[in-house]
Every structure is written in structure tokens, then in C-alpha cells.
Amino acid sequence: MALRKEDVDLDPQPVGELALQTLAMPKDTNANGDIFGGWLVSQMDLAAGIATKQVTRGRSATVAIKNVSFLYPVSVGSIVSCYAEIVEIGRSSMHINIEVWIANSITQHGQRKVAEGQFVFVAIDENGRTRRIEVPGKAGQ
Ligand SMILES: CC(C)(COP(=O)(O)OP(=O)(O)OC[C@H]1O[C@@H](n2cnc3c(N)ncnc32)[C@H](O)[C@@H]1OP(=O)(O)O)[C@@H](O)C(=O)NCCC(=O)NCCS
């Protein structure tokens, strides 16, 4: 089926709130000289953890990472921005969609999405056990 003009987003924008921004450094490269995917996932994990703080107001831990896709290679010197959107809150868990966008650190131009994935965090107490997330206005938990 042919794409209609209105289906093609000519100016795609990040979904979610900016949770973390950093610079891709030479120490984070893989054997190809591009940025190592594991480093990018750790930035995404940090961003998801930061996003959960506004909800959990305490300790939380990653329990699952799902459907991570790397869409384009990331070069040294790129500004790496992680955007977070909390899409579901359960009894103790939160599902957070993360998008990673990069821009050239000199020109600030050419912003594009390079990776995305879903992270599941669980609110935990001081003993590492799950705890209920209190959401204002959400009764009967
Ligand atoms: C987080 C942890 C305390 C959860 O313990 P648990 O016994 O699995 O807890 P539960 O089975 O009750 O699950 C807790 C919640 O997580 C959700 N969950 C657990 N595993 C999940 C998975 N693989 N995918 C999606 N959700 C998951 C459950 O659905 C539940 O959600 P809800 O409370 O909103 O209904 C435990 O798994 C743990 O300590 N894991 C290590 C965490 C860690 O150290 N992370 C850092 C990276 S190593």
C-alpha cells in the first residue's frame, strides 16, 4: 500500500520529557569506532530511573528491559538526549518508554532518533522488597 503524504512525518519530534543528556566520548566506542550499544542502554536505564523518581519518591530497580532497537549508529561527540514517557503504573511497577535522540555537538543540527526501548521499574523498600506505588487520586490500591 502506498504511503499517503499525511502519513510521512517530515519533522519528527521526541516523545516524552528530557530525562538525561550527555556527550558520547571516545571511551564508549565499539570495535567499529561508533558508540557501544551497551553504553547507550545504560544511559537509557539511567533516564528511566530518573523518570521514575517523580512517581516512586524512593528506591526503585530495573526489573525488565524490552524491545530495545538501535536505529542509527552514534558518533563520538554527539549530544545524546534520552526522553522518557511513563506509559503504565501498576501496583509496584512502572513501564517507561525511552527514546534516544542525538544532535551534532558543534552545529546542534541534525537531531534524529537513534534508539528506543521499554523499561520496567519496580518500587522497592529499604529491604529490596516490592512496595506499592501511591498515585494521588488513584483509590483502592
Ligand atoms: C525487582 C524485584 C524486587 C521484584 O521481585 P518479584 O518477586 O519479581 O516481584 P513481583 O513478581 O511481585 O513483581 C513486581 C512487579 O513487577 C512486575 N514484573 C516482574 N517481572 C517483570 C517482567 N519481566 N516484565 C514486566 N513486569 C515485571 C510484576 O508484574 C509486578 O508488577 P505490579 O506490582 O505492578 O503488579 C526482584 O525481581 C529483584 O530484586 N530484581 C533485581 C532488580 C535489580 O537489581 N535490578 C538492577 C539490574 S541487575
How does this model look, in words?
It is a single chain. The protein is mainly beta. It has one domain (about 15-125): Thiol Ester Dehydrase, Chain A (Roll). It has one helix and five strands, in the order βαββββ. The chain has one helix at about 35-55, and strands spanning about 15-25, 60-70, 80-90, 95-105, 110-125. Strands 1-3-4-5-2 form a five-stranded antiparallel beta sheet. A hairpin with a 7-residue loop joins strand 4 and strand 5. It is globular, with a radius of gyration of 17 Å. The protein starts with 16 loop residues before the first strand and ends in an 18-residue tail after the last strand. Coenzyme A binds near residues 61, 64 and 120.
By CATH reckoning, the class would read: Alpha Beta
Largest sheet: 5 strands, antiparallel
What is the number of helices?
Answer: 1
What's the average pLDDT? Answer: 90
- CATH architecture descriptor name: Roll
| Adjacency order of strands in the biggest sheet | 1-3-4-5-2
- Bound molecule types: coenzyme A
Q: CATH homologous superfamily?
A: Hotdog Thioesterase
Amino-to-carboxy terminus distance = 46 Å
Q: Give the topology string: H per helix, E per strand.
A: EHEEEE
Instruction: Specify the overall morphology.
Output: globular
What is the number of independent domains?
1
Which residues form runs of ≥5 with pLDDT under 50?
Answer: none
Radius of gyration: 17 Å
Strand percent estimate: 35-45%
Question: Which structural class do the helices and strands define?
Answer: mainly beta
The CATH topology annotation reads as: Thiol Ester Dehydrase, Chain A
